[in-house]
Design a protein that fits this description.
Length: 205
């Protein structure tokens, strides 16, 4: 069964500022009548040992989805996805953490297994999803042992997710059979287009 749980902790990253959405919390925006994050949870939770939500606002609302919520913390109000990843790495009780953004409602049922398989195939410690050779750095599989190094990176302010990942030489994982996996929902127009294309992309009602 492709979606069977793996010894991995999943985390849905829901701590973004969403400036192009007028500051609205993207995870709680509706797609076909259901919050984006609810669709991501339904896809990812069966694949992992535990699913976390990383957020920094609307925490009580996120807890209603039945997942443990970890605050991405820090002194900044919106510290970015690396802070959310760090919070998950420190909260996880498994050797690895698998990340996905809150606006990813079309995660494949074998996302976790394909990412794990890349570690063995490439002899790597980390993996990153790719599309046409381009990294999608918020779709990553990371060992929990990198938490302290990531904390130091954040403290130094050395850069974003892609730049930090390059230090770890991740195995690239292509998803050519998943055309909707990396659809960004950064603006109201993009959300409206995704709603229009929802059934074509294989989204459930």
């Amino acid at each position: 069964m492709t979606g069977a749980p793996t010894p991995v902790t999943g985390v849905i990253l829901a701590g973004g500022r969403a400036e192009r959405m007028g500051g609205r919390d993207k995870g709680l925006l509706l797609l076909a009548g259901e919050p984006l994050i609810a669709r991501g949870i339904r896809r990812l939770r069966p694949q992992v040992a535990e699913l976390l939500i990383s957020a920094n606002r609307n925490l009580e609302m996120y807890r209603t989805f039945g997942c443990r919520v970890v605050r991405d913390g820090g002194s900044r109000e919106f510290p970015g996805p690396l802070a959310g990843i760090l919070a998950a790495l420190r909260a996880a009780a498994t050797p690895y953490v698998l990340t996905a953004p809150c606006d990813s409602p079309l995660l494949p049922p074998d996302y976790a297994r394909r990412m794990l398989a890349a570690l063995d195939r490439e002899g790597a410690a980390t993996a990153v999803a790719c599309a046409g050779g381009c990294w999608q750095p918020v779709f990553a599989l990371l060992p929990v042992g990198v938490a302290d190094e990531l904390a130091a990176w954040l403290e130094a302010g050395d850069g974003g997710v892609g730049r930090w990942l390059r230090r770890h030489r991740p195995a690239p994982v292509e998803f050519p059979d998943q055309p909707g996996l990396f659809r960004n929902v950064n603006t109201p127009d993009e959300l409206a287009r995704l709603e229009t294309d929802w059934s074509i992309l294989g989204g459930e009602a």
